[in-house]
Design goal:
Largest sheet: 8 strands, mixed
CATH architecture of the largest domain: 3-Layer(aba) Sandwich
CATH class of the largest domain: Alpha Beta
Strand content: 25-35%
Structural class: alpha/beta
């Protein structure tokens, strides 16, 4: 614990071995893939923040506009003195749009990137001295528990950024079911969901002219070099992102520019020229489709807010009895 933030380390050193095993399993699969969690070292977190301000990338500014316009309505539905738990807190920018309106008794930021998490929560605690601030370094895509000692009458999870889209629909349902085991009956979930829309808007959002998304995708290979003893040359791969209309998802890949072999943690991984490493999905939903999915997971819809261009939706759900 430091003077501003109560820190809870739920990402112990032994997880590094299991992360390596998970990474190698994906690289050895056909087709090859990695989990989006491997994007988020310190540099990856910084690059993602840079993506969010690119003119083509509508989700962040649209979600923030919805939160700004609907803050009072959200506060009325959520109620005061809750424990506000932000999953994948990153720079904790969006939650600032809620704090004054909700006035929670406690804030908990949860993120896998330890240093980035501590920096952002310390800034938050300094800017809101009345707020009890906690930080939990954890992989929230795996089973976890809320830390002990959180103030507040009831937990309300905040999952912005349409990060739920990084899961397949089946995985998303499983993730939401996991949240129902952490939330009491009546506990809330405020969640951002990207909506199905014109393909041109989606393709542009993940292929920004400045190349920031490409750098973010390729940084995964830099992380493999630094943290997993990988022998790989990032310049031998290129970024690829496109909208898959059949599955209603953006796909991101790293495409090998030649026949090559890389080594990760001593294991040889062969790539043919043009072969892809699938690094991320971002599924898009209709309002009704996401309500149906969350209902199967044990949540009841209470309210939702959409921007005037129908690009993005924020749902407020409560855990059903």
């Amino acid at each position: 614990m430091d003077s501003l933030v109560r820190f809870h380390d739920q990402h112990p050193p032994e997880v590094a071995g299991s992360l390596c095993e998970e990474l190698l399993a994906g690289l050895s699969a056909t087709p090859k893939f990695t989990s989006p969690k491997f994007f988020y070292d310190r540099r990856g977190s910084e690059l993602f923040d840079a993506i969010c301000v690119q003119p083509e990338y509508y989700p962040t500014r649209t979600e923030e506009a919805i939160l700004r316009a609907a803050a009072a309505d959200i506060a009325e539905v959520v109620g005061r003195d809750a424990t506000l738990i932000e999953l994948g807190s990153g720079a904790s920018r969006k939650v600032r749009l809620l704090l004054e309106a909700l006035h929670p008794a406690c804030y908990l930021g949860v993120d896998i990137s330890r240093d980035f998490l501590l920096e952002s929560t310390r800034r938050l605690a300094a800017d809101y001295p009345w707020l009890e601030v906690h930080a939990a370094c954890a992989d929230f895509s795996r089973p976890m528990a809320w830390p002990d000692g959180l103030a507040g009458e009831r937990p309300v999870a905040f999952f912005p950024g349409s990060s739920i889209g990084n899961f397949t629909p089946e995985e998303a349902e499983g993730f939401l079911k996991g949240l129902t085991r952490l939330l009491p009956v009546g506990g809330g979930l405020l969640i951002g969901v990207d909506l199905i829309k014109d393909r041109a808007i989606l393709d542009a959002a993940y292929n920004d002219a400045a190349g920031v998304t490409a750098a973010f995708n390729l940084n995964l290979l830099q992380r493999l070099r630094h943290e997993f003893e990988a022998e790989v040359e990032p310049h031998e791969f290129r970024h690829q992102a496109f909208y898959n209309e059949v599955d209603s998802r953006i796909e991101m890949h790293l495409v090998s520019l030649r026949d090559q072999a890389i080594r990760v943690a001593g294991e040889r991984i062969d790539f043919e020229e043009g072969e892809c490493l699938h690094t991320e999905n971002s599924y898009k939903y209709s309002v009704a489709g996401f309500r149906e999915l969350s209902g199967r997971a044990g949540f009841e819809p209470r309210a939702h807010w959409i921007d005037c261009d129908s690009l993005f939706c924020i749902h407020y759900l409560e855990r059903a009895a």
